[in-house]
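Q: My labmate handed me this sequence with no annotations at all. I'd like to see what the chain might look like in three dimensions before we decide whether it's worth expressing. Could you predict it?
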Amino acid sequence: MSSRHRWGKAVLAAGVLAGLVVAPPAAFAAAGPTALPASQYTLTANYHQFDTVTTALVSTLGTAAVHTVMDNANHDRTALPSSFSVGGLSTGFQFDSGDNSDCANYPQGITTSRDAVGTANSGNYDGHQLVLVSWYTKDGCDGDQARSRITLVDWDATYPNKYRKVLLVEPTGTAAAPDFKDIPIHAGGVSWYGDYLYVADTGKGMRVFDMRKILKTDTGGTADQIGHQSGTTYYAHNYAYVLPQVGTITAQTTSGTNLAWSSISLDRVSSSIVMTEYTCQSGCTGYPNRAPRAIRYPFTSGVFAATTTASQALQLPWYNLNGVASHNGRWWFNSSGQKKLYYWTPTAGPSTFSWVGSGESLSYWEDSTSADLLWSLQEGAGNRNVFAVTQATYGGG
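A: Here is what I predict for the chain of 397 residues:
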């Protein structure tokens, strides 16, 4: 992992087991989270940071609506392998064989169009029900982090089992000479609300993207070319679509220790985004050696105010946390290092369940006609299962 990303999560070996047990063993009691002063944690939001350049890029390149991107989806998702099992399994998929085994690209965050729009119209955004996964790319199998992307996966029987990759970019240049560059972040968590996509930026907070501003690029050139070439030709590592950053959400704290934004998730019930940290109990050199925290930040209509104060802050007793979800006063935390899924409410206290290895982010899937689900995924090359379990199986009730 690059020294530039001191809080980046370690990639687990490809040989990690794909699943654990058909049903989780009985949960056991443990010490639970404790409250911290929420007023110590604030966000500063700027949704117009790149307006001038982005407007010029849109004028030069043109945009593609999400439905157009999906009409041109060019990868086939496949079924979960029969060997994969986890308690409460409802559904899921794998990426194609190339993406499943790729040693230079790693899936991290997960969100869905149910986050974006809720249960209305069967959770469709621009006519599609989607699962969205964030990835980071290394410079070769053993290189530094070089860029990040998202994958839009159709999740509706009406459409083919297809997905499309979209490169995340940061606008650069000027209105007269607009350009863009790669975003070399871990993209450990992602949340989608309305038209805005929030991507975790480990040491800073979140980067903001607008799903209405996907840009069309030229697929020519070489795999290492990025940005403006000549005239109206823009390359993006052979990607046909890029999603430019529109703003930044910067985190501040008076607690003395900056937050490590390892994972994020949307809570539609309380109109908030929650985050948690990947930390170690001791002995780590690339990550903080301290107890992790989970913070809740409220917004209005999916948009943070210029300054936002946290509405809830928790000190957590668990470590190696790659995923977090919260819904209606309930919390879940995924620990890849411990292969555990922790569940907690202030009234019921904590419970611990067996979970998959190599597990990453969590996303809560509201459903008005069937059981609510928790979506998650595994990052290990060769075992990249993207799956949903019934949330009630893991303490949700």
